Amino acid sequence: MESTRYRIQLNDATQGVGFRPFVFRLASTLALNGYVQDSREGLVIEVEGAVDRVAQFIDRLACEGSLAAVVTRDIDTSRTRSHVRTGIPNDLATCADCLREILDPSDRRYGYPFTACTACGARFTITQRPPYERALTTMRRFEMCDVCRAEYETPSNRRHHDQSIACPACGPTLSLPIDGIVGALRRGSIVAVKGTGGFHLFCDARNAAVVARLRSRKACDARPFAVMMPSVAITREYCVTDQDEEAALTSPAAPSCCCGRASCPIWPRMYRIPAGSSVCCCRTRRSITS
Questions:
Q1: Does an H or E element contain 164, and which?
Q2: What is the pTM of this model?
Q3: Residues 190 and 151 in one domain
Q4: Is residue 76 part of a domain?
Q5: Torsion over CA: 209, 264, 278, 89 (sign)
Q6: Which residues span the domain enclosing 250?
């Protein structure tokens, strides 16, 4: 059987999204040899094996890449070096698998707000300098427990090489219970929550007085604050959205979006802004970033 060997270089942001474990699993499935590693020029893959299987590998690499990785379809298989540098990927909304764990009373991460995997969670906001390695992030002082370490080192696990991996036994914890935070918000308080990537200021968006107080303290009289919405259906009650905005809100990145303001009595009371102004909204399954 004729064999071949390729050196493949990807210049997209593939760090922190589980792409290396994906390459490992794909190569193992096709019985190919080689290695995958990060470099200053990008992600480098050396793959060797039967000609037809290597061809399958390259095709599937472009079509089946990790959900969060944006992989170019023009894969460089030459031996020349590119001058493009890799970057740190953006933070991603909590994925469905992690949400199931957070909401499952029998799971060890039940109710744990810092749950993440290679398909979701903080990346950019916790990185102090590249490359994206745990020792260079704000997670460096949290030593993994034995269970998390096993997940981190198992190629078939979705937390393989997840630099933000954590659990209640070894990761960051809340100094105030969730119920206490909710109670403070309902009483009209402004709550500062320190996450893995910095501080976030929260208040009840339906309370005009506390919104005005927050605006005064932040000296932001007109700039829209991000309003967390539990679903697209609820968002439509307060905002005028189009297909692109709704697609963005439900995407893995789940960015904050500036949407048109719907005719709803809450907006004039809260913001003192005219009809037709924009509202910055995001899903509640994603942290608001400044």
A1: none
A2: 0.69
A3: no
A4: no
A5: positive
A6: 178-283
